[in-house]
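Input.
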Amino acid sequence: EENVDSARASLEALYALASYHALAMANGSGPGFSAAVEVNPSFFVELAQLLLMAVVAPSFPQSLLPPASNTLLALVLCDVGAFHALVDSLLSESGDEARRERLQTAFTDLLSPAGGELSLSRPARNAFGRAMVQFVAAVRGVITVK
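Output.
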């Protein structure tokens, strides 16, 4: 229980960081965390990959899916192009054609939630959260957690 509470707090903190950067970049309202991105251009996508691998692990607590989905969405929005490149990389490493197709469908559904837009609005976060539950169910055991 204590570990889950700590993980939830960590996910919420990471969401705050990533959403701040994503909104700053989208609105042009400031540099966000551009200084960190200059030092490590793949900063946000690396965090997204780590979170994605954690979420699809069989031991990941279901109760953490809501904050994890919000956080993943914010991380994706920090650098959509880099996340698509990550997805392409995961697809190319997926092995046989059936696995690749299953992953492709799951990622397409995740990144095209009902309502259509990826944003940090409440409806978009809710749609992404529902898509995340479906994504985890579809790919758990298909993606190799490294």
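The radius of gyration is 15 Å.
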